[in-house]
Design brief:
This protein is α+β, with helices and mostly antiparallel strands. The protein has 9 helices and 9 strands. Strands 3, 4, 5, 6, 7 and 9 form a 6-stranded mixed sheet that branches. Strands 1-2-8 form a 3-stranded antiparallel sheet.
Length: 282
């Protein structure tokens, strides 16, 4: 399970076999955004599925920076990251794989009872079970069980043992059950009060319903920059419907639900909503 002292050598070997890789710094976390890409304002790198439109040459977008291109891995822009790298990570979804991350003995026992045997890699706390096929990444599908596939990274800890099996339906079912229905937000969300004495400019309830439905569709169809899309959509809804008192908790819950179905947390939704209200002075 020990890793070569030269992470770049490991990365190049993996890339040559078609596995997209990136360096990890101490603490098993990716390198942070550069100033230009702070908070993923640029939308993420374009070289992986579901990434955004950023053309930054640095390794500053987590899983979305993973690549199989040796000229990128050995570029001047990536050199400082490799000099500080503590480990190598890979993007399972980009390699057509899914990692079931089992963090404790109980999780391993559950997998042994429930899932087909497959390639297994020992980790510091448990095991990675690796399958052929991709699924949406979701953390906490069970106690001590995370699913890492699309839009996620996993630490490379060696090839492991066993023969890789096809992704079982049970793993996909876990991801779906965890995301639907979304959990309610833990924080109270302020719904703007109507302007006192003002007249509602929405002539029919259908106008508001159409606006909420369009907002839901915009978030649901987003394929990149999910955080930014959610915020911009909340901002648009509030700028159109937030001053007359028509919005209700039910409307907000619908928007939060679709955002959470895209992987946003309840906290992210609450923050995005409140930031949009602040921007508009509501």
């Amino acid at each position: 399970m020990s890793e070569t002292p030269y992470p770049l050598h490991t990365a190049l070997s993996l890339a040559a076999s078609g596995v997209p890789v990136l360096p990890l710094r101490q603490g098993k976390v990716p390198f942070g955004n550069c100033t230009r890409c702070a908070d993923n304002a640029c939308g993420g790198r374009p070289n992986m599925k579901h990434a955004g439109s950023c053309t930054c040459p640095r390794t500053c977008h987590g899983w979305a920076a993973a690549t199989t291109k040796p000229d990128v891995l050995t570029s001047r822009e990536w050199a400082p990251a490799w000099a500080q790298a503590a480990a190598v990570a890979y993007h399972p979804g980009g390699a057509g794989l899914t990692v079931v991350d089992l963090d404790n003995p109980d999780a391993i026992a559950w997998a042994s009872r429930t899932l087909p045997s497959t390639q297994t890699v020992a980790t510091t706390r448990g095991e990675h079970w690796i399958y052929r096929g991709t699924v949406r990444s979701v953390n906490g599908v069970r106690d001590g069980v995370d699913i890492k596939s699309t839009m996620a990274y996993a630490r490379w800890l060696g090839p492991g043992t066993g023969t890789m099996a096809a992704l079982p339906d049970a793993v996909g079912a876990l991801a779906v059950s965890r995301l639907s229905p979304p959990r309610p937000a833990p924080c109270a969300v302020a719904v703007p009060a109507g302007v006192r004495g003002g007249e509602c400019r929405h002539r029919t309830p259908a106008y508001l319903e159409r606006g909420i439905a369009m907002a839901e569709q915009r978030i649901a169809e987003a394929r990149s920059a999910i955080h930014a899309t959610v915020y911009r959509t909340f901002l648009a809804v509030l700028s159109t419907h937030g001053r007359c008192g028509c919005l209700t908790e039910a409307h907000v819950a619908r928007l939060f639900a679709v955002a959470q179905s895209k992987g946003e947390t309840a906290r992210h939704c609450t923050d995005a909503w409140n930031n949009a209200r602040t921007t508009l002075g509501l």
